[in-house]
Design goal:
Number of helices: 21
CATH superfamily of the largest domain: Cytochrome P450
Helix content: 40-55%
Bound molecules: protoporphyrin IX containing FE
Distance between the termini: 99 Å
Largest sheet: 4 strands, mixed
Structural class: alpha+beta
InterPro entries: Cyt_P450 (IPR001128), Cyt_P450_CS (IPR017972), Cyt_P450_E_grp-I (IPR002401), Cyt_P450_sf (IPR036396), Cytochrome_P450_Monoox (IPR050196)
Strand content: 5-15%
Family: Belongs to the cytochrome P450 family.
Pfam families: p450
GO molecular function: heme binding; iron ion binding; monooxygenase activity; oxidoreductase activity, acting on paired donors, with incorporation or reduction of molecular oxygen
Cofactor: heme
Number of strands: 11
């Protein structure tokens, strides 16, 4: 009889193969990267447990790690290594000089909704798509935005006025998010989603669920990837709602008469429909991409600005003075297009908000397609390393931002900006994959905020310390604890605010 039976051979081979695989996946990469500082990973889970326990606070955990381990550190999500960088020299090298591609974790995790839209399209197809869409992001497009905003801003102002008359708080973040969503749809795709008018509209809820689920996809990538679980039933339903809206927008455009087409200016949808060989599902992906990238980023930043200014009456006073001076005694809902560039102080407050509360807090996620040596510290990173640039960390580096927790708009005066490292401010990222909508967002926010501070005074309807950042792709303010008086009017408000009138809103304005 054979000393070792065939069954024993099979078991033995299986054990040897499994041990080799275990060593290759869980032990060797950690041993090879032992020169990179970072929190101690457990063998199987890595640091996933600590990060998942923090529910929506990953950027703050990274901040703790940076204080402990320095500008470059690593953490492990199960067997996946992620190296975090936040020094401006390294950022410039990785995302501008080398322009490494986005990590597939990021692209796949967002793909159920964003498909192969501009945000997630692979590097080899990006340049051509970006060039085509960039053509639309010119001054004419900003002027169109300005015109379209007037319709939606009137609705927002009326809503705030009503609340102030009834002496009721508003959930500013919710109202601002519906507003920016409607502005994006009207300006980009020729039709408002009307979410300001219909408070139970399915799209804001669907976008919210989608962002949360896609964030879980990124955070739990190795597990979701292993089981192919990118599309949970919740994400599937949310995606269906958004894509249905996108299909309706496309259908409406396809049956538009030639005369109607000639009567209106070109918009984003016209561009998507013109890009050569772009199939319908890619057009839907672009609409979904601009819908998710182009509205709650701006609204959450406006919310953070209101939150900060509520705690700094001297800043509010300066904003009001600047806006009122430009406004004069004109009867209108908003400033004129040319006047927005005169809002120098408000622009500094806007930038300081983007610095302290960068809405795209975890920033950009890249994969090295060659070995690199980081310029800031000479550390070697091998090809295929996944590198994360969390903007939240970049903007809290005391070497470039002294007293980073303080809210100081003057950091962005011309003299101070010139003195700083050009890559220390990353709110819109940098290089070929930076934010295509940064001027759109800035124009929209400054125009809106100028009207808000002209017509109203705002104060927080909860303790400032009870408002915390919650991160799910975008980082928004969330009030953890609100007074009963607020609870009786608003159901789980994100940012409860009292609104007091300053100037009366005209009922009709000249066009
Ligand atoms: C305060 C507002 C905004 C902030 C802070 C912001 C921030 C960013 C950041 C950091 C990125 C880089 C993401 C990455 O590397 O993965 C990005 C990309 C992008 N943003 Fe924005 N964004 C804002 C508003 C907008 C608006 C209004 C639009 C559309 C009108 C928009 C459309 C996009 C698109 C399409 C990309 C992908 C660009 C590419 O890869 O070529 N964003 N944004």
């Amino acid at each position: 009889m054979a000393l070792v039976s065939w069954l024993e051979w099979i078991v033995l081979s299986f054990v040897i193969a499994a041990s080799f695989l275990f060593f290759y996946i869980f032990i060797f990469p950690k041993w090879r990267s032992r020169h990179i500082p970072g929190p101690k990973p457990s063998l199987l889970l890595g640091n996933a447990l600590e990060l998942s326990n923090q529910g929506g606070a990953a950027p703050m955990v990274f901040e703790r790690y940076r204080k402990q381990y320095g500008d470059v550190f690593q953490f492990w999500s199960f067997y996946r290594q992620i190296v975090v960088i936040s020094h401006p020299d390294d950022i410039k090298y990785i995302i501008v000089t080398k322009n490494f591609p986005k990590a597939e974790e990021f692209n796949l995790s967002l793909s159920p909704l964003a498909g192969r839209g501009l945000l997630t399209v692979r590097k080899q197809h990006h340049q051509q798509r970006r060039r085509a869409i960039s053509k639309q992001f010119n001054e004419d497009f900003l002027r169109q935005l300005h015109r379209h905003m007037k319709v939606e801003l009137k609705i927002l102002l009326a809503k705030l006025q009503k609340a102030s008359e009834k002496r009721e708080p508003v959930d500013f973040d919710k109202d601002a998010t519906s507003y920016t969503l409607d502005v994006m749809c009207r300006t980009g795709f020729g039709r408002s989603a009307d979410t300001q008018k219909d408070t139970n509209h399915p799209i804001p809820k669907a976008v919210n669920i989608a962002l949360k689920e896609m964030y879980h996809n990124v955070a739990a990538y190795p597990i979701r990837n292993f089981f192919g679980l990118y599309t949970s039933p919740r994400l599937k339903e949310a995606t269906r709602v958004v894509k249905e809206f996108a299909s309706q927008v496309i259908e409406a455009r396809k049956v538009e008469s030639e005369q109607d087409r000639e009567r209106r200016p070109m918009d984003l949808l016209d561009i998507f429909l013109k890009v050569e060989d772009l199939p319908d599902w890619d057009i839907i992906a672009e609409i979904a991409t601009f819908l998710i990238a182009g509205h709650d980023t701006t609204s959450h930043t406006m919310s953070w600005l209101i939150y900060e200014v509520c705690q700094h009456p001297e800043i509010e006073e300066k904003i009001q003075q600047e806006v009122d001076k430009i406004w004069g005694d004109r009867q209108d809902w908003m400033l004129r297009f040319e006047e927005i560039s005169q809002l120098e102080y408000l622009n500094m407050v806007w930038k300081e908000t983007l610095r302290k509360h960068p809405v795209a807090a975890t920033g950009t996620f890249r994969r090295l397609d060659s070995d690199v040596t980081l310029p800031s510290c000479g550390m070697f990173l091998p090809k295929n390393t996944a590198v994360l640039v969390p903007i939240y960390l970049v903007h809290r580096n005391p070497e470039f931002w002294p007293d980073p927790e303080a809210f100081i708009p003057e950091r962005f005066s011309r003299e101070n900006t010139i003195k700083r490292h050009p890559f220390a401010f990353q709110a819109f990222s940098s290089g070929p994959r930076n934010c295509i909508g940064q001027f759109f967002a800035t124009h929209e926010a400054l125009t809106t905020l100028a009207s808000l501070y002209h017509f109203f005074h705002f104060s927080l309807a909860c303790n400032a310390e009870d408002v915390r950042p919650y991160h799910a792709i975008t980082m928004k303010p969330v009030a953890r604890n609100v007074p009963d008086q607020v609870k009786s009017v608003l159901n789980s408000p994100k940012l409860p605010i009292w609104v007091t009138p300053r100037n009366s809103i005209p009922s009709v304005v000249e066009e």
